[in-house]
Amino acid sequence: MSDQSTVFTRLPETDDEREDPERATRAEVLDFWQDRFGVPPDTFEGYTFWERGAGKLWLYQGSPPSPVDIEGLGMTVLRTRQEHWKPTLEAVQRFGDRASKNVIHLDEDAARAFVAGEDQERDWDGDWGYLVVTHDLAGGTEPVGVGLYVYGELRSQVPKGRRREV
């Protein structure tokens, strides 16, 4: 078997099934999405959560055998094993439309700056930390990415390779 950085192992369902106390459980992941963003747990019905390396969580629709030694499995969804769990851009774009908390909506100019990777001073009366950032697109409100709000500033968390001048 390859080193642990390439092996995906399925998250335990609950704390009772957890062998590594640092490892997240499915229940904790569902609680995180619900508590932080108001995303209902049933949003992830039919999906399994997998860890590769230390705290890099992936989401897969289905259930292959565990462990599995492959390069990728579904999509990255969350970074754990750090002080504050961080959702990925892909997860927010896929599931952020279900968010009802810690969502900041940007107008056109602010959204352009955000997707270009620019940080911006903003007023926000909600919680500090990671936010779902939305913008009006094609007649509806769509999640465009993850922002980090601290000290009156919305910091773009759009990865450098995904930033765009639009």
TrEMBL record:
Residues 3-74 form the DUF7122 domain. Residues 1-24 are annotated as: Disordered. InterPro entries: DUF7122, Nol1_Nop2_Fmu_2. Coiled coil: none annotated. Residues 111-164 form the rRNA small subunit methyltransferase F RNA-binding PUA-like domain. This is rRNA small subunit methyltransferase F RNA-binding PUA-like domain-containing protein. It comes from Haloarcula terrestris.
